[in-house]
Amino acid sequence: MTDTASAKSGDIRADYLAHARQRQMYSGILLLVFVLLMVSGFQLADARNAGGFWTGIHQFFDFPSEVVSEAVAKAANLPGLMWKFLPSLIETVNIAGVATLIGACGGALLSLLSTRGLARFPALIPVFRRLMDAMRAIPEIVIALVLIFVLGGGPVPAMIAIAFHTTGALGKLFSEVSENADRKPVEGLSSAGASWSQSMWLGVLPQVTPNWLSYALLRFEINVRASAILGFVGSGGIGYDLKTAMQWGQGRYDQVVAIFLLLFATIVVIDQVSSHFRHKLVKGH
């Protein structure tokens, strides 16, 4: 009996060691593939670059040092410049806020329509999921460039582009939260004669709202940055002012630093406030 137990224990140990060696081998292969991809990708990018990476790396800090030195020399102008660009910053935050609100509403609807066990039309779940994939796959800047060509420059193309991408991104996140919702309230409401919208409103939303709002606040932070970036392609906001200041070059670098400081302070404030509310919503205190 003891010999049989010892033999089984030895077999288990041998199987475990074999499995561990197999995992180590797979991990080594994956690491090797990753390194090869990184090296080949860098070589290809460096070959197609206008200049060599290694030949120009010593000049990496030349432009930033020039900008900072001019800003330090004109440090007295920074508070006034920050006040000057404050309306543009407010426009950027407004673009992000409206886009996040529209994207959250659209994402909530698509998430409920694409969640197994909750969807109104189960046969169309793959359609709604692929729609969200497409909305996430198209970068905001591509959508904004198309809309600027159609509608002209301004904040509206940026808002639509960010809202479009946000709908797909939040729809995916909201759907993952909805899949973990308890189905019993929905089943109880349906058995009492409630419609699909009533079942979602009363049975699902109270469960998922804290996590949904947490994701929406996190997305708002991302959209503020996206809104500033889209200003470079003529979508208004503080990004457009930053592009103009950088195009003027030397003599306007104090404006560049003032805009960067304003953006940095805004991102920090939004991050702290949204983190506070996300913690309250998820943790409940």
Question: Please, could you describe this protein's structure?
Answer:
With 285 residues, this protein is mainly α. The protein folds into two domains: 2-59; 65-283, Orthogonal Bundle (MetI-like fold). Helix content is 82%, strand content 0%. The protein has helices at residues 2-48, 53-56, 62-73, 78-84, 86-113, 125-137, 140-151, 155-179, 184-191, 196-230, 238-248, 253-283. Helix 11 (238-248) packs antiparallel against helix 12 (253-283). It is extended, with a radius of gyration of 26 Å. The mean pLDDT is 83.
Concise structural overview:
The chain is mainly alpha-helical and 285 residues long. 82% of the residues lie in helices and 0% in strands.
CATH homologous superfamily designation of the largest domain: MetI-like
| CA-atom Rg in angstroms | 26 Å
Q: What's the helical proportion of residues?
A: over 70%
Order of helices and strands: HHHHHHHHHHHH
β-sheet strand percentage: under 5%
Q: Mind sketching the topology for me?
A:
Elements: H1 2-48, H2 53-56, H3 62-73, H4 78-84, H5 86-113, H6 125-137, H7 140-151, H8 155-179, H9 184-191, H10 196-230, H11 238-248, H12 253-283
Helix pairs in contact: 3-12, 4-12, 5-6, 5-8, 5-10, 6-8, 7-8, 8-10, 9-10, 10-12, 11-12
List the defining traits of the structure above.
MetI-like fold, 12 helices, 285 residues, 0% strand, mainly alpha
